[in-house]
Amino acid sequence: xxxxxxxxxxxxxxxxxxxxxxxxxxxxxxxxxxxxxxxxxxxxxxxxxxxxxxxxxxxxxxxxxxxxxxxxxxxxxxxxxxxxxxxxxxxxxxxxxxxxxxxxxxxxxxxxxxxxxxxxxxxxxxxxxxxxxxxxxxxxxxxxxxxxxxxxxxxxxxxxxxxxxxxxxxxxxxxxxxxxxxxxxxxxxxxxxxxxxxxxxxxxxxxxxxxxxxxxxxxxxxxxxxxxxxxxxxxxxxxxxxxxxxxxxxxxxxxxxxxxxxxxxxxxxxxxxxxxxxxxxxxxxxxxx
Length: 289
Fold this sequence. Notes:
- The protein has 289 residues and is an alpha+beta fold.
- The protein has a single domain (2-285), classed as B-lactam Antibiotic, Isopenicillin N Synthase, Chain (Jelly Rolls), CATH 2.60.120.330.
- It is 24% helix and 19% strand.
- The protein contains 7 helices and 12 strands.
- The strands form 3 sheets. Strands 1-2-5-12-7-10 form a 6-stranded antiparallel β-sheet. A 4-stranded antiparallel β-sheet has the order 6-11-8-9, with no helix packed on it. Strands 3-4 form a two-stranded antiparallel ribbon.
- It is globular.
- It starts with a helix and ends with a helix.
- The model is unreliable at 258-263 (pLDDT under 50).
- Residues 118-236 form the Fe2OG dioxygenase domain.
- One of its GO terms (biological process) is small molecule biosynthetic process.
């Protein structure tokens, strides 16, 4: 998959522009076009990306760039594998949260991600180019991807060995090594799983969104190597209502924390997964809501 990513990002800009990103969140976004932390960033992220939405009967539901037309089946298979893994992880979350059996139990989350209708799920190929010498970027300080949390339920992140830069907010910014100390470095890096805003919202904040960013590490100016990663953003079906998770465990935890009762409906109105995503994308790309 990383070879496919390199192949696309090394193609001419004219080819990339044929599949430029639109408000359906599918397609190519150019360097500096995305601002993940608009409140604090003075300019966009120094990266480019290619978003793939869901496949239907093995076929992409968007124009494919010329360089990847022959790889449609590979992209479809990888997308499906990512989705299947997310479904299993969501079942484990449901078990851990002790969702009421009569409400769906371990399948409460996964049934809302069953691909019975369109969703905001996205496979994203990411390319962080070498920082040009005239870009005035300061290694270790300037941002390749601004501080943000992901918009969906959970995210799978795939990274390449030796390509550091990811940081996670946990009482300050902490480096998230591609290979944690406990992992055999001769093996491929483990998949990093982020909790997204929807899962946090659903659980009344009990599960916290993973706030993260990508910085330019000091070694980037020395190694002269482009950074590549891939992310799979798992979203529920668009029409899913973001109602409270039916869990006595969560209700009790909310009371003990002195937090607001886990009752999203009491906030005024129940929104859908699609409405939630549309609002977040509008802020990121400067689109009108």
